[in-house]
Design goal:
The complex is a heterodimer of chains A (305) and B (719). Chain A is of the alpha+beta class and 305 residues long. Chain A has seven helices and nine strands; from the N terminus they run αβββαββββββααααα. The longest helix of chain A has 23 residues. Chain B contains 26 helices and 18 strands. The chains are: A alpha+beta (305), B alpha+beta (719). At the A-B interface, strand 4, strand 6 and strand 7 of A face helix 8 of B.
Chain lengths: 305, 719
C-alpha cells in the first residue's frame, strides 16, 4: 500500500496513523482545547519533561486566527491540522523513521529531493527551544524536525525528538491539488464525495469574520485575566487534598495556560495588542507555562525515575 | 610517516556553519597533535552536510622522548629534604646524580619520558576536540550528554602507513571509532569500510558523495553556467549562495527552469531575493533584456525521470512565492501611484524609539535637516526635503514587510511610480548608504543630503536621550552612523562646519523631547530641569554638540589611522579652530603628516619643541607670558638677526597660505625656518645675563611658537 499514492486527505492521515502505530507510537486523539499548534498538546509539552520514556503520535486541529483568509487563499487557513510525533528519548534512527513515513504517504525519496535544512525552533510562549531542521521536499517545507532542548524553562533530559507535519500542505502536494478547498477529503469515488471546501469553506468564512471583526475584545481580555488567575490559583493550592491525598494539579493548570495562549492569539488577530504590549503578553503566557512545567515535574509522570 | 584520516559523521550540519567547522577541526587537531610532540607535513579539512573530515599527512609515528632535569637539595641538606625529592621524582637515591653547584654539591634527577605512539596521542586529542568543539550552537540528543551540532553518528579514525590502515581506538559517549562510513542517504544507502584518504574519497564518490566542498561548488557553477548558456541566459553570480548550496548537498544535480511569464515584470531584485531567500535558487538573466527569466535549483539526487518531478515541485513552490510577491508589488504600486498617503499615516504609529517618537516624527526632523544641509552639498533644498519625506515610506509597503533587505530598492521603484524625479527616487535607495565598510558612498547631491540628515538625526537623537555607545556596546550602531557621516563628508568633499548642523538638529530634538509628556521623557526631565523662570537649558548648554563633535573626532581618528595617518597628527589638527569642518581637518592632517615625514619636518619639530620648552620654563620661573615685543635692535648675533628675517618672511607667507587653505605652501614656508632656527640654537644662548637681551630672545622664541601653532598644535606631536 505504501508505494501507491493516497487518494484523499483522510487517507494521508490514516496512513500516517498506521505507520507510526506500526513503529510503536501510542496513537492519541487531539487535545480537546483550542491550540495554535500540535506542540501545545500536553502529550508533547508536559511529556517532554522528566525521564520517563514516551512515544505518541496524533492529529491536532490547530487555530491561528491571524491566518484566516475567508477560505479564499489557496494555502492559508485559520483552522488546520497538524500531525505530531513525539518520541523520548529520541531514537538514533529518527531521521530514517521519518523518511519511512514520507514513503508511506507516497513520497518516494528516489523520485523526490528531500532535504534537511537548518531551522532552529523556539516557542517564546512555552519557554521552549530546540535544534533541528525544516524538511524540504522538492523545495517545499513539509515538516519540522526538532530535538527539544528545553521546555517550560526545564532542560529536557533525555531529549525528545519532535516531528510536525503540516497536513494540508503535505497532502495537497501528495495529491497534486493547487487550492486547499479543492482537496478531496474522503475518497473521490465515495458515494458522497466531500472536498475540504465542502467541510471547511463556510467555517473559514465564519471564523475569519469573528476573529477579525466581531470577537468581543473586552470579554477576551477578561478571559485572559481569568485564565491567568485560575492557573496561578490551581498551582498555589496545597498538594494534599481534603482527604490527605497528594495530587498536584499540573494538567488543569496547564489547560488554563493553553486558554490564555489562544486568547492572546485572538486578541492579536483583533489588532488590539500593540507592539510593546505583545512582548508583555507573551511573557505572561510563558510565566504560566513555566509554572505548569515546574508543577508537572513534581508529579509522578514528570518526575525523574 | 603515517597519514591520519578522521571523519565525524552526523545528521545534517547547517550549511552556514561548515566552513568555520572545517577550520576549527583542522586547527584544534593539529594544534593538539603538535602540542603533544608530533609533527606533520600537511593537513586539509572537508565537509558535506553529513560529515566533517580531516586528513593529516606525514604525521610522525611517535613523539620524541623528552629528557628533563630537576635540581634537588644540596648534599648537605637534612635527610627529610632528600626523601621529599625522591618522592616527587619517583626515583631512588642511587638513580640521582651528584653535581657541583654554586654553593657546593647538589642532587640532580634526570628524568626521561619516552616518546608516545601517534595513535595514543591522536585518540586523546580527538576525543578532547569532539567533547569541546566550538559549534556556534550545539545540542544534546537521546539519553546522552555529549553536545554536537546535530546527533553525531559515527567516527572514523584511521592511521595509515606502509603496513596498512589501523583504526585508532577511541570512544566518546558510546560512539566507538572505526573505519566504516556511509554513502549518500538515498542514492547509496549502506555502510562500507575505507583504508585511507584516497580510498575514502574514491569510495565516497562511488557512493554518490563528493567530499570536497570546493569540487561541489565548481561543479554547481559549471553546470549552472552551461545550463543557462544552453537556454540563452546567463548565471547571476552569487558566491555566498554558491557556498551555502554546496553545503546543502552531497551529490549536486543542477536543474534549470523558467519563470512563468506572469512574473517577469516583477523587479529583478524582487525575483532574485525571493528565489534566493526562500528557495536558494540562482537567478538566470536574459543578457538581451536584462530581465531575470530563469532559475537554477540544485537537487541532492539523480532520479529516474531526470529530475522532472523535482523541478515540477520546485516550480510550484516558486509560483506560490512569486504570486505573493506579485500581490505585494501590484498592491504597493497602486498605493504608490495614489500618493502613498496610507504609508505616511502608517509610519505615525510605528515607534522608532519610545522617547524619540514615531518614524513619522523622525522623518519630519530628517526632512527639515536635509533642507538645511542641501545647499552645503550642492543639492536643491526643495528636492532634498521631498526626498527625505519619501525615503522611508517603503517600510510600510507589503514587499519590504516580506523582504526587509529590499528597503530602499523598493522605495526607489515606488517613488518613480509616484511620479517623483529620478534624484528624489534615487535618494530613497541611496540614503541608507554607506551600509557598512565595504559599501560605497552615494554621490548624487540629493542622496548625500538625505543620507547625512538621516544619520545625524540618529546621532543627535540618541545623544539627546543619553544612549551613547559604551565600550563594546553599541546597540543602535551609532559608531557606524558617525563613520557614515565622515565618509559622506570626505567622499564628497563637503565643506561645512558640523557644529551648526548638530546644534540645529539637536535643538529640534531637544524641543521635541521637551514637548512630550513627562512620562515619556522621565530621564530627560530629571536630568535637565528647568530654571527659575521656566526656561530649559539649550542643547548647546547641555554639551550635546561638543560631546558629539568629539565622538566624530574619535571616529575620524580611527578612520584616518586606517589610512595611515598617526593619531598625534590628528590630535594636533583637531586642537585647531575650525575643527568641525572635517574635510578641512583632513586636508590639514594630510599636509602635516606629509611634512613630518620630511627631514625638514622632523628637525623643525625639534626646534619648535626646544623653543616651546625654553619658553615654558622661563614663563614658569618669571610668572609672565612672553608673547610680544621681540625687537631686532636688541639682536646681538648674526644668527639672531637671520632668525628675525626668516620669521618675517615665513609669517608673510604662512598667513595667506593658511587663509587660502594651501597647507602645502604653509608647510613649505615652515620648512624654510629649519636652518635659521637650528643655527640660532647652536650659536645663541637664550638665557643671557643681560635681562633686556634675554627678554628679547624669549619674545623671539614666542614668535616661533606662534608660527608653529598657526598651522597645528605642534605640542601634540610625539617624538
Amino acid at each position: 500500500m505504501s508505494e501507491t499514492r493516497p487518494r484523499s486527505f483522510q487517507e494521508v492521515i490514516l496512513r500516517l496513523q498506521s505507520y507510526w502505530a506500526s513503529k510503536g507510537c501510542a496513537i492519541l486523539q487531539p487535545y480537546d482545547m483550542e491550540v495554535g499548534a500540535g506542540t501545545f498538546h500536553p502529550a508533547t509539552t508536559l511529556r517532554s519533561l522528566g525521564t520517563k520514556p514516551w512515544a505518541a503520535a496524533y492529529v491536532q486541529p490547530s487555530r491561528r486566527p491571524t491566518d484566516g483568509r475567508y477560505g479564499e487563499n489557496p494555502n492559508r487557513l485559520q483552522h488546520y491540522y497538524q500531525y505530531q510525533v513525539l518520541i523520548k528519548p529520541s531514537p538514533p534512527d529518527l531521521q530514517e523513521l521519518y523518511l519511512g513515513s514520507l514513503k508511506a504517504i507516497g513520497l518516494d525519496p528516489a523520485l523526490h529531493d528531500i532535504r534537511f535544512v537548518e531551522d532552529d525552533w523556539e516557542s517564546p510562549t512555552l519557554g521552549a527551544w530546540g535544534l533541528g531542521w525544516e524538511v524540504w521536499c522538492d523545495g517545499m517545507e513539509v515538516s519540522q524536525f526538532t530535538y527539544f532542548q528545553q521546555v517550560g524553562g526545564h532542560d529536557c533530559k533525555p531529549v525528545p525528538g519532535e516531528l510536525t507535519y503540516g497536513l494540508e500542505r503535505l497532502a495537497m502536494y501528495v495529491l497534486g491539488v493547487d487550492h486547499v478547498m479543492e482537496m478531496p477529503f474522503n475518497d473521490p469515488g465515495a458515494p458522497i464525495h466531500l472536498t475540504y471546501g465542502d467541510i471547511f469553506r463556510q467555517t473559514e468564512q465564519e471564523y475569519s469574520r469573528w476573529n477579525f471583526d466581531q470577537a468581543d475584545t473586552a470579554m477576551l481580555l477578561q478571559h485572559f485575566a481569568d485564565a491567568e488567575a485560575e492557573c496561578a490559583r490551581i498551582l498555589a493550592a496545597d498538594d494534599l487534598d481534603a482527604a490527605g491525598r497528594r495530587i498536584v494539579m499540573a494538567h488543569p493548570a496547564y489547560d488554563q495556560c493553553i486558554k490564555a495562549s489562544h486568547l492572546f492569539n485572538l486578541l492579536d488577530a483583533r489588532g488590539v495588542i500593540s507592539v510593546t504590549e505583545r512582548q508583555a503578553y507573551i511573557g505572561r503566557v510563558r510565566a504560566l507555562a513555566k509554572a505548569c512545567a515546574d508543577a508537572f515535574r513534581r508529579t509522578e509522570a514528570g518526575a525523574d525515575a | 610517516m603515517p597519514d591520519l584520516l578522521i571523519e565525524l559523521r552526523s545528521e545534517e550540519i547547517p550549511a552556514r556553519m561548515q566552513a568555520r567547522a572545517r577550520e576549527d577541526l583542522k586547527k584544534l587537531m593539529t594544534d593538539g597533535l603538535v602540542e603533544a610532540g608530533l609533527t606533520y607535513e600537511s593537513a586539509a579539512a572537508f565537509s558535506t552536510p553529513r560529515r566533517l573530515a580531516l586528513v593529516v599527512e606525514g604525521l610522525t609515528a611517535q613523539s620524541a622522548a623528552v629528557r628533563e632535569e630537576k635540581k634537588g637539595p644540596a648534599t648537605t641538606a637534612p635527610d627529610a629534604a632528600l626523601q621529599g625529592f625522591l618522592r616527587s621524582t619517583g626515583l631512588t637515591k642511587e638513580q640521582l646524580e651528584v653535581r657541583d653547584d654554586k654553593k657546593g654539591q647538589a642532587y640532580f634527577a634526570v628524568l626521561t619520558r619516552p616518546g608516545r605512539p601517534a595513535a595514543e596521542i591522536v585518540a586523546e586529542v580527538l576525543a578532547h576536540v569532539i567533547r569541546t568543539f566550538p559549534w556556534p550552537k550545539s545540542m544534546r540528543w537521546g539519553s546522552g550528554s555529549l553536545r554536537w551540532v546535530r546527533p553525531l553518528q559515527g567516527i572514523i579514525c584511521l592511521l595509515t602507513d606502509e603496513a596498512g590502515a589501523a583504526v585508532v581506538p577511541l570512544e566518546v559517549e558510546g560512539i566507538v571509532s572505526g573505519d566504516r562510513t556511509a554513502g549518500h542517504r538515498f542514492l547509496s544507502p549502506g555502510a562500507f569500510a575505507v583504508t585511507g584518504l584516497e580510498d575514502y574519497a574514491a569510495k565516497l564518490k562511488r557512493a554518490h558523495v563528493v567530499l570536497n566542498q570546493a569540487e561541489r561548488s565548481a561543479h554547481i557553477e559549471a553546470d549552472a553556467t552551461n545550463a543557462a548558456f544552453a537556454a540563452g541566459l546567463e548565471l547571476v553570480p552569487d558566491q555566498g549562495l554558491l557556498a551555502e548550496v554546496a553545503g546543502l548537498v552531497e551529490w549536486p544535480v543542477v536543474l534549470m527552469g523558467r519563470i512563468a511569464p506572469e512574473f517577469l515584470d516583477l523587479p529583478p531584485e524582487v525575483l532574485q531575493t525571493s528565489m534566493k531567500e526562500h528557495q536558494k535558487f540562482f537567478s538566470l538573466r536574459n543578457p538581451k533584456s536584462g530581465r531575470i527569466e530563469g532559475f537554477v535549483t540544485v537537487a541532492n539526487v539523480e532520479t529516474a525521470d531526470q529530475g522532472a518531478t523535482i523541478l515540477k515541485g520546485n516550480q510550484k513552490v516558486l509560483a506560490a512565492r512569486l504570486s505573493d510577491a506579485k500581490f505585494f508589488w501590484d498592491r504597493d504600486l497602486r498605493e504608490a501611484k495614489a500618493g502613498m498617503q496610507s504609508w505616511v499615516e502608517g509610519l505615525k504609529s510605528v515607534t522608532f524609539e519610545s522617547r524619540l517618537g514615531s518614524q513619522a516624527d523622525r522623518i519630519n526632523r530628517i526632512a527639515t535637516l536635509a533642507r538645511e544641509i542641501a545647499p552645503l552639498v550642492g543639492a536643491d533644498p526643495v528636492q532634498a526635503e521631498r526626498a527625505a519625506q519619501l525615503a522611508k515610506l517603503d517600510l510600510q509597503s507589503g514587499m519590504v514587510g516580506e523582504f526587509p533587505e529590499l528597503q530602499g530598492t523598493m522605495g526607489r521603484y515606488y517613488a518613480l511610480a509616484a511620479g517623483e524625479t529620478p534624484e528624489v527616487a534615487d535618494a530613497a535607495r541611496d540614503h541608507w548608504r554607506p551600509k557598512g565598510e565595504g559599501d560605497s558612498v552615494p554621490t548624487e547631491p540629493v542622496s548625500v543630503a538625505v543620507a547625512l540628515a538621516d544619520k545625524i538625526d540618529t546621532l543627535t537623537g540618541f545623544w539627546a536621550i543619553d544612549e551613547k555607545p559604551t565600550g563594546s556596546k553599541d546597540p543602535f550602531a551609532l559608531r557606524r552612523a558617525a563613520l557614515g557621516v565622515i565618509r559622506l563628508v570626505l567622499g564628497n568633499g563637503v565643506r561645512a562646519g558640523l557644529s551648526r548642523i548638530l546644534s540645529n538638529s539637536g535643538g529640534r530634538l531637544y524641543n521635541f523631547l521637551a514637548a512630550r509628556t513627562v512620562d515619556d521623557v522621565a530621564d530627560f526631565n530629571s536630568v535637565d530641569s528647568v530654571d527659575a523662570i521656566g526656561r530649559r537649558p539649550t542643547v548647546d548648554q547641555v554639551g550635546v554638540v561638543s560631546d558629539l563633535l568629539s565622538f566624530f573626532h574619535d571616529r575620524l581618528k580611527v578612520y584616518l589611522r586606517d589610512q595611515g595617518i598617526r593619531h598625534d597628527v590628528i590630535d594636533a589638527v583637531i586642537a585647531m579652530p575650525g575643527n568641525d569642518d572635517l574635510s578641512l581637518l583632513v586636508k590639514r592632517a594630510e599636509a602635516l603628516a606629509a611634512f613630518l615625514k620630511t627631514d625638514d619636518g622632523t628637525n623643525l619639530l625639534q626646534g619648535l619643541k626646544r623653543a616651546t620648552n625654553i619658553l615654558a620654563q622661563a614663563e614658569a620661573k618669571d610668572g609672565v607670558e612672553y608673547s610680544f615685543g621681540a625687537d631686532l635692535k636688541f639682536a646681538e648675533t648674526g644668527e639672531e638677526r637671520a632668525l628675525f628675517a626668516a620669521l618675517d618672511g615665513a609669517e608673510a607667507k604662512i598667513a595667506p597660505a593658511m587663509a587660502a587653505e594651501d597647507f602645502g605652501a604653509a608647510m613649505a614656508a615652515m620648512a624654510a625656518l629649519r636652518a635659521p632656527i637650528d643655527a640660532f640654537f647652536t650659536a645663541v644662548q637664550v638665557n643671557a645675563d643681560n635681562p633686556v637681551v634675554r627678554r628679547n630672545r624669549l619674545n623671539l622664541l614666542s614668535r616661533i611658537r606662534t608660527i608653529g601653532q598657526s598651522v597645528a598644535d605642534m605640542t601634540k606631536i610625539e617624538g
